[in-house]
Design goal:
A hairpin with a 5-residue loop joins strand 3 and strand 4. The protein has a six-stranded mixed β-sheet, with helices on one face. The chain has a two-stranded antiparallel sheet with strand order 3-4. It has one domain: Glutaredoxin (3-Layer(aba) Sandwich), CATH 3.40.30.10. It is built from four helices and eight strands, in the order E-E-E-E-E-H-E-H-H-E-E-H.
């Protein structure tokens, strides 16, 4: 199989993309486990987040995406990370911050590493398969219903940007 990658304005578009392991799981900020396999057949937007970042306002857009598209199957998964030294000291503080300031009810993980040798297995798989590694907070990875990476975006691409919404609409149709 031949793979074609095109880099357009900082976005990785993959044709013939790779499937990520559906057995990836995250510890939930609410307790328990969030398993990618629970969302098999659904698109998932995975975003590494931080509570003390200049892009933290994007939580509002992430919640709005979730509210708009969850009934059509979209999962928006927030993955708090302190890899860029901008996250609160504990998952409890992150949860409280997000609930009070953004009324978040989308799925959220415990604080995780998203880059380097300690990166969560999901992020290691994305890096191995696509070369994409978060360079800062609020990087976005859209996984299609088939478990393949559809697109990736950096911090400056807002959750409700035309390019993100276009890709979400494509994977939902």
């Amino acid at each position: 199989m031949r793979y074609i990658l095109v880099l357009v304005m900082g976005t990785l578009w993959a044709a013939g993309a790779w499937a990520l392991p559906r057995d990836a799981q995250f510890a939930s900020i609410d307790g328990g486990v969030l398993q990618m396999s629970d969302w098999a057949g659904q698109p998932v937007l995975v975003v590494n987040t931080a509570s003390q970042c200049g892009f933290t306002y994007q939580y509002e857009g992430l919640q709005a995406l979730y509210d708009t598209y969850k009934d059509r199957g979209l999962i928006v998964l927030a993955v708090p990370s302190d890899d860029f030294n901008q996250e609160l000291a504990s998952a409890e503080k992150v949860k409280e911050f997000c609930e009070l300031n953004f009324a978040l009810d989308l799925p959220m993980t415990e604080i995780e590493h998203v880059k380097g040798s300690d990166a969560h297995p999901f992020y290691k798989a994305v890096a191995e398969e696509t070369g994409f590694v978060p360079r800062w907070n609020f990087n976005k990875v859209l996984i299609g219903a088939d478990g393949k990476v559809v697109a990736t975006w950096g911090s400056t691409t807002k959750p409700q940007s035309a390019e993100v919404i276009h890709q979400i609409e494509k994977v939902l149709n």
